[in-house]
Every structure is written in C-alpha cells, then in structure tokens.
Design a protein that fits this description.
CATH topology of the largest domain: Thaumatin
Number of helices: 6
Number of domains: 2
Strand content: 25-35%
Largest sheet: 14 strands, mixed
Distance between the termini: 97 Å
Number of strands: 21
CATH class of the largest domain: Mainly Beta
CATH architecture of the largest domain: Sandwich
Helix content: 10-25%
C-alpha cells in the first residue's frame, strides 16, 4: 500500500513537471543573437555620417595603393579613426565599414588603412567623434609616418622642408574639416559646431582631389579639383595638371621652380613659403618688396579707405602711413598700427599682418589678401574677385589653383578665405552632415 502511494506521488510529480515543461517550451522566445560582425546604422550615435572614398584614378591606382589616415585634435587631445570589426549592411549608402574613434596615447604611431579595406568604399563615422581640426590624409603606396607627441596634444605632421623626413618621398595630400553635431546645451536645435571642410594648397599640391557634402536637409556643395572631360582643371590626369602648372604662360618663372623630385618623379609642388628660393637669402626672398614699397608710398600720400563687403557694407577701415608705420581704425575703433610687411610675411600671412588684437588682425587678413591678389592700392577692388591677379607681382601659386578648381574657389594662401574665395564649404548650424564624399584622382 505504501509502495503504491509513493508510485502515485512520483507519477503525479512527473506529469506536473512534463506539463510545466510543455508550458515553458510554448512561451519561451527564440534567442536573438546578432551577428557580431554586423550592426545597423541606427546603432550609431546621432549625427553620424557616411564618408565615401572614391578611387578616381581611372585605373592608374589600385585600391590597396591608396592609404587613409584620419586624425582629430579635440580639445588638445589626439584621436584617430580605425576600422571596426563589423559592417553595416543596410546603411544610407548601403553596405559599409564602421569607423571607431580612438583616443591616442603618447608616442603612438598613427594607424592607417587602405581603400581596399573599406567595404563598398563607404565608412560610417560616429556622430560623437568630436571632429575638431580633423585631417583626412590620403597617401599613395605607403602610409604616412606620424607620431603622437609625449603630451598627447599633437602629432608630428610631415615636414615638407626636410629631405630626411620619412614622408618626403611619399605623394600625399589631405582634406580638412571640423564637425561636432552634439546639440548645444542651451539650444538643442543647433550643433555645437556645424560642419565645415575644405581642400587646401596652402602648403603643397600632390593629389588632385575634390569633395562633396550633403546635409540631412538636402544642402549640398562641391569643392576642389576634378579631372577629365568637363572637369574644373580641363586635364585628364595628375601629371597633366602638374605640366599645365609648369608650362602656364601666366605663371611667373619663380613659381615654376617649386617642384620636389624623388627618383626622377615629381612627388609634389610646394607653396612658395616652403621653398628656400623664397626664404631669407633665397633668389626670390624679396619677390614682393618693390610692390610693398609702392603700397607704402601710396598710403603715405593717400588715405586708405576700405570695406570688407560689397556696396560699402561690413567693417570699415581707414588708415594712413606716417613715418613708415600704417596707423588704421576699424569701425572707428583704434588706433592700431602695422609695420611694413616683408615678402615672406605676404606668402605666410603672418608677421606684420598679425599686429595682435582681434580688430587689428582682421584688417591684417584683408590687407594681406589684397597684396597677394595685387589689388592693394585700390580698396574698391579688395572684394571684387574679377580683378584679382590681373597685375604683377601677385601670388601666382594661388592664382593657378583658383583657375583649376571648382567655381574658382581654392585655398592658395592662409587668408584666401577673405572675400569668400576659399574652398571652404559649411552647412547651416541646424543641419547635420549626411554624406561626405572624397574623390581621389591621379
């Protein structure tokens, strides 16, 4: 009797356990394991964007010959981009690689990847990456050797004037940008820093590149140098563009001596201020001196009266040279003073053109640009681009890059943004970046 009771209890227990198991099996959800090698675009932080890197070499370069290094300087701290071990399969631009933004460490060599490593030539970059002072370096056949300094607030950029620099024999160029879509604390509808980016020939030219931006609200802009039929440059290749520069009849001979050659090949053209020919003791160290004397004599006899916008609008500058010193006012504030610049000051947009205060430096930028463009003695022409580079001496280096760039917008010297003639493209403060496309020519 006792054994029968025990058997009944065990049987009842097994039945309950079996029913409970069936119930658990019926209500359990299948495991939701995501492929660790992939993610969705929605997983990225707000403000994320697509970086599209196009090989526009027309078959002259393989993707694995094109190296990319992306370096940022947020708040005096170096960061850089690496490729994550995952892809996005259905992003705004389709399949693409994912970029990680990493904080650099002391003495670290900045890493690189090739275009062949980037899925679909598309890199999705996170919106919280703090892209301050960002450079996207492009180099051919070899990555650049750039080391973070010991205090991690900077890195060793290539030195164009040092034959022993490990990057001297490498063809490279770069795109510059700043972008921080983090909403402002007091205004969630505005970015902390709206997107702004540009190509530049302030230092050199080595790789013809252009960029296109598209904002999330549809704002678009294109800048830089294009190749091929109907292009901004009017030539088919990098070699053709360099030859166009070296043989141009409207480029003064001193500017045709700015080549850097390694192994019989032109690696790059360098801007005048990087060349020993235009430095102190060089054959063209005094290139602008006669013009500067003419300007100084003119404003000794005549008053300088200039506006920085068309129609006598914007900031108003008046001044006069007395005892070889230019004394000037900005919107009635001053006086400020400026010594006579040197030719090297003109090319570097430094020295005398940076008298110190914000108001004085603003005038220095206007005056420096007018001298580079050979319109300094007629302030009515300072903001009329059709009159730039019509006389000599002028900065023929900058003149050429304007001639071969989209909409004649280029960065040929430091203050080339005066009069909105630089290659900078900016999105509105309330519009995030959607797509940045870099076209890499050769």
């Amino acid at each position: 009797m006792k054994n029968k009771l025990i058997k009944k209890i065990i049987a009842a227990f097994l039945i309950c356990f079996f029913i409970a198991g069936l119930s658990a099996t019926a209500t359990a959800k299948p495991s939701q394991h995501r492929d660790p090698s992939s993610s969705t675009y929605e997983d990225l932080p707000a403000g994320s964007f697509s970086l599209i890197l196009n090989n526009g070499s027309n078959g002259k370069l393989n993707d694995d010959q094109i190296y990319i290094q992306i370096v940022n300087l947020p708040k005096d701290q170096v960061s850089y981009v690496t490729l994550a071990n995952r892809t996005i399969k259905a992003g705004p631009q389709g399949t693409g690689s994912v970029g990680n933004v990493n904080i650099g460490t002391a003495n670290e060599i900045l890493p690189s990847f090739t275009l062949a490593d980037v899925k679909n030539h598309t890199l999705y970059l996170p919106g919280d990456g703090k892209y301050y002072g960002t450079r996207i370096y492009i180099s051919i056949n070899h990555p650049l050797v750039m080391q973070i300094n010991a205090t991690t607030n900077g890195y060793s950029q290539p030195n164009l004037e040092n034959l022993n620099d490990p990057n001297y024999a490498i063809s490279f160029d770069w795109f510059e940008m700043t972008y921080d879509p983090t909403p402002q604390p007091n205004n969630p509808h505005l970015d902390t820093v709206s997107f702004g980016g540009n190509m530049t020939q302030i230092d050199c030219f080595s790789i013809p590149m252009s960029f296109t931006i598209k904002g999330v609200s549809g704002t678009t802009a294109q800048r830089g140098i294009t190749l091929g039929q109907g292009s901004s440059s009017g030539v088919a290749s990098r070699d053709d563009l360099i030859n166009k520069y070296l043989t141009a009849s409207n480029i003064a001979d001193p500017f045709k001596k700015l080549t850097q050659i390694v192994g019989g090949k032109i690696i790059r053209l360098i801007s005048p201020y990087h060349s020993p020919l235009f430095k102190s003791g060089g054959a063209y160290a005094n290139y602008f001196d006669d013009y500067l004397n003419t300007i100084w004599n003119y404003y000794t006899l005549n008053e300088l009266d200039a506006y920085d916008q068309k129609g006598d609008q914007g900031n108003h500058y008046i001044g006069h040279v007395v005892n070889n010193i230019l004394t000037f006012y900005r919107n009635g504030q001053g006086p400020y003073t400026m010594s006579k610049p040197t030719s090297y000051d003109v090319f570097t947009c430094s020295g005398a053109f940076l008298p110190g205060s914000t108001n004085a430096n603003a005038f220095g930028a206007q005056f420096s640009a007018a001298i580079n463009r050979n319109v300094a003695t007629d302030p009515s022409l300072w903001i009329l681009s059709d009159n730039y580079y019509q006389g000599e001496p002028a900065n023929d280096w900058a003149k050429f890059w304007h001639e071969v760039s989209i909409d004649q917008l280029a960065y040929g010297f430091g203050f080339d943004d005066v009069g909105s003639r630089s290659s900078v493209a900016i999105l509105p403060a309330n519009e995030n970046l959607s797509t940045l496309t870099l076209d890499i020519g050769w």
